[in-house]
Amino acid sequence: MTGNQDQLRPNLYIVGFMGTGKSAVGRAIAQRLDYEYIDSDNAIEKSEGRSIREIFESDGESVFRDLEKRFVEEGHPSLGCVVSSGGGLISQPGMLAAIQSKGPVFCLLASAETIFERVRGNKKRPLLNVEDPMARIRELLKEREPIYKNAGTEVLTDGRSISDIASHIVRIYRTESRSWGAR
Ligand code: S3P
């Protein structure tokens, strides 16, 4: 696609804490819009040839954050994609502004209790692989709240189906994307 048509297909970004449903919602939206679906964690795992857990274990969090930065700056197409980001991606300076310049951003929100229920038993998240995951969730939520609150359109997910959340986001995206190229 070229010219004006491209301007109508800015990327759609989904951010939010771990366990807020970013991947499931992102996939549902991509299907509805007929966009490519990209998950930043999966893209990083693919380019590195190892899991997020392995990256954290062998190189530490700061190397993972650099990989997220590289993903945002040069690791994904700039049009026609639904991108779900890892929960901490926008906590790094400059990352939120970088994605906001590429397309509308939606931030999924959930209570600490809902998040805990959704992530419990899943060992794939190094930051929650601690003795008291609930305390860690509360701590990280508090720390990141200011950045999530300013990220973009906030979407509450507690008690809502994936399909309902996806429809809600697609409706807003369609309106926002109409004026995106004219900004
Ligand atoms: C992280 C969230 C994870 C993953 C990594 C760090 C975070 O992604 O990027 O474990 O800092 O919140 P999900 O939000 O998809 O679980």
Summarize this, please?
This protein is α/β, with parallel strands linked by helices and 183 residues long. It has 9 helices and 5 strands; from the N terminus they run αβαβαααβαβααβα. The relative contact order is 0.22.
Plain-language structure description:
The chain has one domain: P-loop containing nucleotide triphosphate hydrolases (Rossmann fold). The protein is globular and about 50 Å long. A 5-stranded parallel β-sheet has the order 2-3-1-4-5. The model has no long low-confidence stretch (mean pLDDT about 95). It has 9 helices and 5 strands. The structure holds shikimate-3-phosphate (S3P). Shikimate-3-phosphate binds next to loops.
Radius of gyration: 16 Å
Main beta-sheet annotation: 5 strands, parallel
Question: Which regions are unreliable across 5 or more consecutive residues at pLDDT < 50?
Answer: none
What is the straight-line distance between the termini?
A: 19 Å
CATH architecture level-2 label: 3-Layer(aba) Sandwich
Estimate the strand proportion. 5-15%
In CATH, what is the homologous superfamily?
P-loop containing nucleotide triphosphate hydrolases
- Helix count? 9
Question: Strands across the major sheet, in which order?
Answer: 2-3-1-4-5
Mean pLDDT: 93
By DSSP, the count of extended strands is 5
Number of domains: 1
Q: What is the SS-derived class? A: alpha/beta
**Ligands bound to this protein structure:** shikimate-3-phosphate
Following the backbone from N to C, one meets helices and strands in this order, namely HEHEHHHEHEHHEH
CATH topology: Rossmann fold
State the helicity in percent bands.
Answer: 40-55%
